[in-house]
Amino acid sequence: MKSSVLVFLLCISSALAYVEVAMNCTDGWDWFKRSRGGWCMKVVLREKFSIYGLIQVFSEKINQGEAEAKCNEEGAVLAGVQNGDEVKWMAESLVKLVGKGNIWIGAKRSIPCRSVSGFTALCTDLTSFYWTDASTTGFLGFKKWLVGEPTNWGLYQHCIVLSSTARLMDDVACNIKATGYVCGKVASF
C-alpha cells in the first residue's frame, strides 16, 4: 500500500513538474534554451543606405545606448551570454555578417565596482558585472574575457563588447562605437 501511494505521488509530481517551454522565434531570430525558458536572439548591424545613382549598404558603428534603443524598438533588449555555446553563436553570426568586429551584449558594471580598477574581493571577473536582460542567469557567461580583462581602465569601462575574432569579452566605455549588437527576447508559444 505504501509503495502504491509513493508511486502515485511520484507520478502526480512528475506531471505537475512538466513545464512547456516556448520555442517560437520571429523570422531572423535563433532559439536558445535557458533556465527561464525559450529565448530568441539575433546579431544586428546598424545599416545605412546611400542612394547616389546606385544603392550602397554599409554598416555604421553604434554605441551601447543606441544599441539598447534599437533592440527596444523590436520588443527586445541587449542579450546577455548564458554559456560558451551562445558566445560561439554570437561570434559566428557577426563573422557571417561583416567578417570581424565587436558586438554589444547586455551587461553593465555593478555600482560598487565602478570605482574599482582591477580586482578586489568584491569585484572579480565573475562579479564585477550583472546581466541586464532578465533572462541570463549565473556567472558562466562571465568566464569568457580577453586576457587581463575586465580592468575598468580609467574607471569608466562599464559596458561589455564581445570580439568576433577572439570570441572573448572586453569591458569598454559605453560610448565607444561597436560593429553591432545582439538583441534577445522571450520566445513565444
Automatic annotation (TrEMBL):
TM segments? none
In Pfam terms, one family for this protein is Lectin_C
InterPro entries in alphabetical order: C-type_lectin-like, C-type_lectin-like/link_sf, CTDL_fold
The entry's keywords: Signal
The leader peptide range reads 1-17
Query: What are the C-type lectin domain coordinates in residue numbering?
Result: 66-175
**SUPFAM superfamilies listed in its UniProt record:** C-type lectin-like (SSF56436)
Reply yes or no: does the keyword RNA-binding apply: no
Question: Which PANTHER family does this one have?
Answer: C-TYPE LECTIN DOMAIN-CONTAINING PROTEIN (PTHR23124:SF74), C-TYPE LECTIN DOMAIN-CONTAINING PROTEIN-RELATED-RELATED (PTHR23124)
What this protein is called in its record is: C-type lectin domain-containing protein
Species in which this protein is naturally found: Caenorhabditis remanei (Caenorhabditis vulgaris)
